[in-house]
Amino acid sequence: MSTITTPDGVEIFYKDWGPKTAQPIMFHHGWPLSSDDWDAQMLFFLAQGYRVIAHDRRGHGRSTQVSDGHDMDHYAADAAAVVQHLDLRNAVHIGHSTGGGEVARYVARHGEPQGRVAKAVLVSAVPPLMVKTESNPGGTPIEVFDGFRKALADNRAQFFLDVAAGPFYGFNRDGAKVSQGVINNWWRQGMIGGAKAHYEGIKAFSETDQTEDLKAISVPTLVMHGDDDQIVPIDDASRLSVKLLKNGTLKVYPGFPHGMLTTHADVINADLLAFIKS
């Protein structure tokens, strides 16, 4: 397996496919998944001639199940360690859900200051802030995330099955075309990771205010979101994010769920390719 070791001793697993001379596209996965969640995108862009990279976040997938560092600062620093190890330049960084938060922090604090980033994409992403606060009255109440934590601690296997079979892909909607394979694959990815990383990751994706990260990003940034996202509601995320970005564009997908990069990969891939080529 290909791994790098971060300055604080964490082994991060990564995939690096395609010509080393081609423009790199780096993918950042959502909670509680792994780089495998990007299979449909990585194979598509590999066929288009790009170099494609994806890593497993610390505590997730095949990376080390460490006790500490399950926060957006460490997520971004770990991504930066992979980028520096591979010496990626002129890269496009694409993040889904929690991975979108990772991209925002990475680009703002590491990628742009180092001159390594060409463009960014936030897909169904958590920024600027998910949880409801006095300054974010439209956010999701903390009790919802407390419920996630309890469900995970009580029976992580069942909780992950329920999320995948229900709201994540919109399989709980009337008329939805349910894929048992997609459900099983989500569950498989989740259960490979560590329970502590997943438990603490809930705080990371829900309570991290990324307003300043978004304001700091100047590269062209595409913000993609389905308007039937039951996990990260579009009005509390992408519609606010695009207003904070210096060079952001919002593309809304009517009826698409949170996991649209899987359920509607053909549409998402085509739009990603058009943005990267633009």
UniProtKB/TrEMBL annotation:
Superkingdom, natural source: Bacteria
Species in which this protein is naturally found: Achromobacter animicus
Catalytic activity, EC: 1.11.1.10
GO molecular function, one term: chloride peroxidase activity
AB hydrolase-1 domain mapped to chain residues: 24-261
UniProt record similarity statement: Belongs to the AB hydrolase superfamily. Bacterial non-heme haloperoxidase / perhydrolase family.
Protein's UniProt name: Non-heme chloroperoxidase
Taxon lineage: Bacteria, Pseudomonadati, Pseudomonadota, Betaproteobacteria, Burkholderiales
Pfam families per the UniProt record, alphabetical: Abhydrolase_1
Assigned keywords, A-Z: Oxidoreductase, Peroxidase
